[in-house]
Amino acid sequence: MIIKGKVWKFKDNIDTDVIIPARYLNTSDPKELALHCMEDYDSEFVKKMNQGDIIVAGRNFGCGSSREHAPIALKAAGISCIIAPSFGRIFFRNAINIGLLIFESEEAAEQCSQGDILEIDSTQGIIKNLTKYKIYKTNLLPEFIQKVISLGGLRKYVKEELKRREKNV
Amino acid sequence: MGKTIVEKILSAHTDTENFKIGDIIKARVDFTFANDITAPIALKYFKESGARQVFDKKRVGLIPDHFAPNKDIKSAEQCKLLKEFAQEYEIEHYFEIGKMGIEHALLPEKGLVLPGEVIVGADSHTDTSGALGAFAIGVGSTDFAAVIALGEIWLKVPPTIKFIYSGKLNKWVSGKDLILYTISKIGVDGANYKVMEFSGEVIKGLSMDNRFTICNMAIEAGAKTGIIEPDEITLKYLKGRAKRPYQIYKSDIDAHYEKIIEIDVSKIEPQVAFPHLPENAKPISKAKGIKIDQSIIGSCTNGRIEDLRIAAEILKGKQVHLEVRLIIIPATQDVYLQALREGLIDIFISSGAAVSTPTCGPCLGGYMGILAKGERAISTTNRNFVGRMGHPESEVYLASPALAAASAILGRIAGPEEVK
Questions:
Q1: Interior CA angle at A19 toward A14 and A24, to 5°?
Q2: Could you report the predicted ipTM of this complex, rounded to two decimals?
Q3: Window A:68-127, CB contacts with B under 8 Å
């Protein structure tokens, strides 16, 4: 899959409380969550960003709580992909599980600037910075995770696994 | 070469032989649970998965604790989903209000998380149970849905960092101070994707309550989990509680660690983590005098009986500062009852504190102690992120129950020795 979008830069250690404050966790409706995405960091973020835009962040993006509402809010707001040198580990799992693209790349995180246009080949893990004429390669994800992503998330995997087990009984 | 405790636990829970660090394995899960924030999404996904029943009715826990007792209509709807699901799928460990507690305090207390087990909780502070020598990891909702359907989880085998604590603890230095100090040394991503194994003579001398506090905050250094080898203190705690037989694992002397970090505790003062990251810990001597509006004693980090005993020791015969709200939240019903029987609740209320039924409430800015714009709290909770306890322009300072109690009396961040 090829994704193209504009970069929004974020600093190190963006936590899930900032991505979606707990005061909105009395719902899990993606549309409602999307309205408040990043609100405590930049109250205008959701209004300013466009569908398909890309977040390029510093280290440890998504640290903190296990709330899946965080990647859900980002995805529902229209963020197509997140690039950072590292992620909070639960956020990393959650993003993969719900089918929100994320890539670990120190180089891309360092060199991409606010407003740059990126084109990402998600299957190959190749990030092209069309503004700066640069190409960054990311490490391919382990086979099992690729399988989960290619199925469209962990929910599809669970369905297949349940069917497989039923046949084997 | 020898193995770490985590490698041994994972070996016992997977069919993959000779796995290496970084390999993806599937591990069987001994107990799994979720709360009123993480469960609603998961239960919906579970129902859509085609699963007819959960993998084991005795090994699933549903605990309304975050916005419970229900704080508003939407929260009530979420909690109702847990109850209905528990009825429909005959979940044995659903904890209704009046019997519940904050999940990470409740489950060890009820003997539902045990040494040598793989525990998966849909909450980041699941690592708390690592204090019992379990491999306990926090996940999100989709993972929880998968675990209750399949009884297993995919995992990347993590490397381990070993922390060895030695020396004599100074007065008022608790598990909370040790973990805040440790996080300040390695940073909020210092153990990202890794296990923190806490060891050494100091850890061996700590009570279970202090050990739970330490493992609870491993996630604040990014860790996959924290773990402490079971010993006599662990076994004594489990006696009469454990609901299943369990296996004790210990790390081999020649186990491989990614790093070994030695910490001399004799240099450590009580710690205060400044806004807005848990890594911003400073010794109390450099934190004194900051005016506070609120003090919270409670949460999965510090809401256990020993925490309340320490708070009572300092509050006894004293009055909470006129301009401070001191809110004390026992983590479970059993802790609450024990505190009542020991006369601690009397001390708290006589001092001008408010005592609440168990809830995560203010820790994550849910309710029961939200901060207004510009307000400041000292809190025994685990996170001080922007907006964590209320308004984005409020501030949270993390500390031990001793400091939270002393500060509540003096109206400013203070150590217990300042209370006259």
A1: 145
A2: 0.96
A3: 68-69, 72, 86, 88-90, 93-94, 97-98
pLDDT tens digits for B290-342?
A: 999 999 999 999 999 999 999 999 999 999 999 999 999 999 999 999 999 99
Separation of alpha carbons A40 and B373, rounded Å: 13
Compute, in degrees rounded to 10, the torsion defined by CA atoms B35, B41, B46, B47.
120
Partners of A15 on chain B (C-beta within 8 Å) are 383, 385-386
Residues on chain B touching A163 (C-beta within 8 angstroms): 50
Q: What confidence tens digit (pLDDT) does each residue in A45-95 have?
A: 999 999 999 999 999 999 999 999 999 999 999 999 999 999 999 999 999
**Would you state the pLDDT for residue B242?**
98
Per-residue H/E/C for B211-250: HHHHHHHHHHHCCCEEECCCCHHHHHHHCCCCCCCCCCCC
Contact between B365 and A142 using a beta-carbon 8 Å cutoff? no
Contact A25 B146 (CB under 8 A): no
* Residue of B37, B123, B143 lying closest to A25 (CB–CB): B37
Confidence of residue A152 (pLDDT cuts 50, 70, 90): confident
Nearest to A66 among B67, B139, B388 (CB): B139
pLDDT in tens, B362-372: 999 999 999 99
A107: β partners: none
Distances (CA, A) of B242 to B135, B300, B393: 16, 20, 44
